[in-house]
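Async update (no meeting this week)

Hi team, since we skipped the sync, here's where things stand on the single-chain job. The sequence we agreed to prioritize is pasted below, unchanged from the tracker. I ran it this morning and attached the output directly underneath so nobody has to dig for it. Comments welcome in thread, and please keep replies under the output.
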Amino acid sequence: MAFKNKYGHADVPHSWIEDPRLAKWVGAQRGHYKKGELSARKVKQLEAIGFSWVLQVQTVLSWEARYEQLLEFKTKYGHCNVATSDIEEWSGLVNWVKEQRRKYKENILSPDQITQLEKVGFVWSVLEDVWMKSYEELCVYKEAQGHCFPSLKDPSTKSLGLWIRTQRLMKVSLLPHRLELLNKIGFDWQQEAGRAKEKWMVKYKELKGYKNKHGHFIIPQSDRSLKSLRMWFFGQRSRFKQGKLSSSRVELLDKLGVEWREEKHPRLEEGLDLDWGGKSTYIRACLDFRF
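Output:
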């Protein structure tokens, strides 16, 4: 009776989160009725309050009843974004969700209704939700890598890179709060600068991999596959000496342990103790590791 008094009908949803026991009990009564196991007295009592033996979706449901439907939807799918494609199974809920978003924009939803919807992760703007997820991904990337230029060639960062490119192209038409969020994390709006930084970061990662593998930054001339990396690294040292290397790049290279004077061969200190054969090998190695 409490449900009937509150919602104006007795069609308790199958999965009513507020009172699962009541939903289960109502389902059981319908089951007993179909099997002819319900006494005439109980049938009469239920029918007296307008109980329907076949659950039907009400053409007009109260806000609370639709909210319960929304909770059922979220339990099943993990989100509250009811799409037009769901209309067959969730008849009425699709339009109700649209109506809530419209009322929210027009500021005519009650504070309690807003609180209830936001509590279950209701998104007022689907497009805004998608944008924020990409922005949060960018924040994580920036925190880990120190820049906002993920490679478009790397499958793991390609979608983020394309999203970033779109933000740069649409800068003049971006919503003010989005512009503010991007500026807050030091977003670089220059596309050409972005490409240059992307190429720089590719070499930086290559150098990092070399250091992790060999434990030093002495790149041999004899290995032609490393020629591009060797010349790039030599260029970074030269720019540093000339005061032309940006502080952010110096900081990144410092993190790898780069010493800005030219490194000597790892066995330099041992050179004087080598026998003739060892010394000749050492000399060849020193020549091989020259810049």
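Quick observations from my side:
Confidence is low (pLDDT under 50) at residues 266-291.
Residues 215 and 275 are 25 Å apart (CA to CA).
Reply here if anything looks off.
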